Amino acid sequence: MEEGAAMTAAGPGRRTLYLAGDSTAAQKYASAAPETGWGMALPFFLRRGPALANHAVNGRSSKSFVDEGRLTAILGEIRPDDLLLIQFGHNDEKREDPARHTEPWTTYQDYLRQYVAGARARGARPVLLTPVERRRFDEGGSALPTHGDHPDAMRALAAEEGAALLDLQALTLALWDELGAEETKRYFNWTVSEQDNTHFNPPGAIAVARLVAAELLRRGVLSRGDVRRLDDAVPASWITWPRTPEEGA
């Protein structure tokens, strides 16, 4: 079973937050634990109003997500007043892979426009999210940006289109810088067998989801009645990894 389309229960009349993105946001399953996408933690910060439909999938770029028909699937479901959260960049940077690579100021913006226009054509609201930052530090212990021009290209597009922007790249870079090189290991998928500086573990996913919820509130995308727990502890034990049919019950 492929990751994607993990959804919280949506009753009649409930607004839905659709999430289009990559592995940093995607639903993870038992075989991948403790790796955790921040989309798995976002419902902890949402009240009973908005539901979450997490369509983020490992390894996708703004281009490959469209080319595989995944945006079309979302646009076939999305309704007026729903939200479409759009976070891509990690895989758009991969020049060696023409199926995923996009150039920041041309094809990246062109593909993102398809998400923005598609949501608006259906009465939904697009929200652009710059890609979360990786864990990388210089010799002096300062967190380093790793995404090249892609975040700036998204910021420029948001301004051009008048779309809401959550600047996760800037927010996570500042958080990693504040925490420092050693402390940030507790937020990424660092295990005995793996030192992963891109993907999160439960504390990291919870921290990023908290940033997303707070920014959705600050930007007026969600109201105070839509969010919760912004100042409360969320235990890592709340994260669970369902099994796929292939893995068994």
TrEMBL record:
Claim: Hydrolase is one of the keywords in the record: yes
Keywords of the record: Hydrolase
Q: Where is the signal peptide?
A: none
Keyword Nuclease tagged = no
Which Gene3D superfamilies does UniProt cross-reference here?
Answer: SGNH hydrolase
Q: Which SUPFAM superfamilies match?
A: SGNH hydrolase
Ranges for the SGNH hydrolase-type esterase domain?
A: 20-204
Q: Which Pfam families match?
A: Lipase_GDSL_2 (PF13472)
- The source's domain of life comes to Bacteria
The record's family statement is:
Belongs to the 'GDSL' lipolytic enzyme family.
Question: What is this protein identified as?
Answer: Rhamnogalacturonan acetylesterase
Q: Which organism is it from?
A: Streptomyces alfalfae
Q: According to the entry, what is the taxonomic lineage of the organism?
A: Bacteria, Bacillati, Actinomycetota, Actinomycetes, Kitasatosporales
